[in-house]
Amino acid sequence: MRATKAIIYLENFRKNISIIKGLIPNKTKVCVPVKADAYGHGSIRIAKESEKIGVDFLAVATVDEGVELRKNGITLPILLLSLAIDEEYKEIIQNNLTPLVFDKEVIESLNNQAKLLNKKINVHLKINTGMGRIGCRIEDAIEIAKIIDTSAYLTLQGVCTHLPVSDSIKKKDISFTKKQIASFKKITDEIRLEGIDPGIIHCAASGGILMYPEASFDMVRPGIISYGYYPDSSIEKSVEIIQKKKVVFSPVMELQTAIVSIQKILKNESVSYGRTWIAKKDTSVGVIPIGYADGLLRKLNPHLSVLIKNKEYFVVGRICMDQCMILLNDDSSVKRWDVVVLFGPNSTITADTWAKKLKTIPYEITCCINKRVPRLYIE
Ligand SMILES: *Cc1c(COP(=O)(O)O)cnc(C)c1O
User: Fold this and answer.
1) How far apart are CA 280 and CA 29, in angstroms?
2) Average of pLDDT values for 200-215?
3) Which residues make beta-bridge pairs with 32?
4) Is the Cβ atom of 81 under 6 angstroms away from ligand 1?
5) Are 265 and 275 in contact (CB under 8 A)?
6) By CB count within 10 A, which of 70, 161, 265, 304 is most buried?
7) How many CB atoms lie within 10 A of CB 325?
8) Rounded Cα–Cα distance for residues 62 and 46 (Å)
9) In angstroms, what is the span from residue 279 Cα to ligand 1's centroid?
10) Distance from the alpha carbon of residue 177 to the mean position of ligand 1, in angstroms
């Protein structure tokens, strides 16, 4: 295995799921999103671990992601969170994936396809209560629920929505989310009053679970917190107040590499493309075999640091596609083959540190660790 690897601490994943279960009612189911290769952690292994520890549902974004899980023996229900196209419906049905539906055209087409295959499938009705992405309008929800209910090959297994600002502590966002939760609850009650069982009611992703205990309903969909990060670190204090305790998750991924060469660099000599870094004195730099093609984005430097035996060293010069250099100065304690930690648990540098530097969110950091970086699973 190459020196550059993402170590996946399954124990931290299990810990995070158990913390999540402690935040929701006993009867509330847990659906772990394993889309985008489980946010970069490896969807098959995370799905298998989820099955072992009693997770109820998995969720993916694409049909291919769902099919890959089925091919690897995963039997949990799998929600399909994004929309597929007509030519994929057959695979959805054959692989027993559970699509979100919300319009007549797709419902009829899925029902016809299921009839052709003589196989019934579960669907969840998606309602757009404010995300402005997919879902039917609230005022159309009853009509759509009725269409599903009368489709012979479809079973309405659940009703769901998504909250766009549940991870914000801004007053206007909190009032928006509260209204969304209330109108979602109201429409599910109305569906029931029409004599249709809405099944599993769900709306909360990580932010909703942490900030709105009343939004747990029958199932929650914790993505980023399962992998050890807050959706937005600015909510930590509010969460402590709402949950009446500190809620701390453990990052599941550690990105590490090793020093593969130590180079002498003399005063006024430069390092890397563009010659943006010039040595002010005679020094030494370590070469690490990781670059932007691995997910160490070029924009991370200058001022990016890494850890060797818990001591901080800075990346110097531009990050190349497959390698970059770190300034060792005259630190003779650093040796060739020493392990270099880029981010991870038990470290002062996390994916959140990178996210802040890049003005993005930790989701994007772990997702962007390229597939060519092998994942090493630690039980
Ligand atoms: C990705 C996703 C989630 C998980 O979101 P997190 O913020 O990572 O918890 C939940 N629901 C839907 C519909 C999603 O697309």
Assistant:
1) 59
2) 98
3) 58
4) yes
5) no
6) 161
7) 22
8) 17
9) 46
10) 15
Rounded Cα–Cα distance for residues 124 and 156 (Å) = 6
Per this entry, what is the length of the chain? 379
What token pair was written down for 220? 């929650």
Q: C-alpha angle with apex 79: 254 to 376, nearest 5 degrees? A: 20
How many Å apart are CA 102 and CA 78, to the nearest integer?
18
The best mutation among 37, 78, 81, 159 to test binding of ligand 1, ranked by most ligand atoms within 8 Å of the C-beta, falls on 81
Whole-angstrom Cα distance, residue 325 to residue 316? Answer: 6
Whole-number Å distance between alpha carbons of 18 and 91: 33
Among candidate residues 72, 61, 57, 9, the one with its CA nearest the CA of residue 37: 61
Work out the pLDDT band at 6, boundaries 50, 70, 90.
very high
Measured between alpha carbons, how far apart are the two ends of the chain, in Å?
A: 18
Q: Is the pLDDT of residue 101 over 90?
A: yes
Report the share of the chain in percent with pLDDT over 70: 100
Cα 379–chain centre separation: 20
Q: Which of 253, 257, 270 is nearest to 345 (CA)?
A: 253
pLDDT over threshold 90, residue 331: no
Distance 18 CA to ligand 1 centre (A): 18
Q: Is the pLDDT of residue 62 over 90?
A: yes
For residue 187, pLDDT over 90 is answered with: yes
Q: Is the CB of 130 under 6 A from ligand 1?
A: no
Task: Tell me the one-letter amino acid at 26.
Answer: N
* Band of pLDDT at residue 332, cut at 50, 70 and 90: confident
Catalytic site residue 357?
Answer: no
- Which tokens in the block code for residue 338? 């020493």
Catalytic residue among 9, 35, 126, 153: 35
Distance (Å) from CA 94 to ligand 1 centroid: 25
Please enumerate in sequence order all residues whose Cβ is within 8 A of that of 8, keeping only pairs 6 or more positions apart, or say none: 41, 42, 45, 46, 252, 253, 375, 376, 377, 378
Whether the pTM exceeds 0.90: the reply is yes
131 vs 71: CA distance, rounded Å: 33
Digit-coded pLDDT (tens) for 273-319: 999 999 999 999 999 999 999 999 999 999 999 999 999 999 999 99
Instruction: State residue 252 phi and psi, 5-degree precision.
Output: -95, -30
Atom of ligand 1 nearest to the CA of 82: 15
